Amino acid sequence: MKGLIMSYITQKKISQIFRQDVMQKGFKHVSVAQIMHQAQIRRQSFYDNFDDKYDLLSWTIQATMEDIIDSNLDYLPWQEIISLVFFELQENAKFYKSVLKNQVEVDVVREIAWHIQILLLHILRKKGLIKNRQAYDFVETYCLGLTYTMTNNLFLPEPKEYDELAQKVCNAIEFAFGNYWCHAYVLTGASSASSQGSCNFNNVTE
Asked: CB-based burial of residue 53 (10 Å sphere; 0-12 exposed, 13-18 middle, 19+ buried)?
């Protein structure tokens, strides 16, 4: 266990320096040797944890999204988690713009979309809709579109503020999931007035 903790601490330290270097120099100009020199860690330690800087990039995106999304699923409202993702991209726009523009080995959009998908599936799971194939297909497609919306915004001459975009996305999710939940609810044959009154998005996300 101690070894795993130490390995994670080393990975985080390397990742933090990597992010800073990408923002300052651009992804193309970041090297493993420079990162490890700044970290004051022997170079072999890098290769004990990562294959190359592309593997480090993938780990960095995954770890960031896990911290924002996965670890907060049971603690924060889903709307707040969405907002935190948008804030992360805006706050570190130089980093994301560089890794989106200057490399193709790591599909950054898909990496982010995967974790947003975990969030939306979490909502569906709470309502027992997780086994529905249409739900899976919708969530996968929607999350890719949502992530492209976030990343494309970074390259606009006048990017929209993160909270404005996050609110639009939350409204869209409420509309889509609200309609989906009502459709699924009707198919179950619920007909009483009290049951029909439960057909709203608040019941999906509570």
From this structure: buried
C-beta separation of 87 from 150 below 8 A: no
Rounded to whole angstroms, how far apart are CA atoms 140 and 15?
28
**Count of residues for the chain?**
206
CB atoms within 10 A of CB 126: 12
pLDDT at position 16 over 70:
yes
As given in the structure block, the two tokens for residue 166 are: 């996050």
d(CA 18, CA 12): 10
Q: What is the pLDDT of residue 118?
A: 95
pLDDT at 200 over 70: no
In this predicted structure, what is the pLDDT of residue 9?
92
User: By the 8 A CB rule, do 61 and 22 touch?
Assistant: no
Q: What pLDDT, on the 0 to 100 scale, is given for residue 4? A: 55
Please report, rounded to a whole number, the percentage of residues in the chain having pLDDT higher than 90: 69
**Euclidean distance between CA atoms 143 and 113, whole angstroms:** 5
d(CA 100, CA 40): 28
> How far is 28 from 37, CA to CA, in rounded Å?
18
8-state DSSP, 156: S
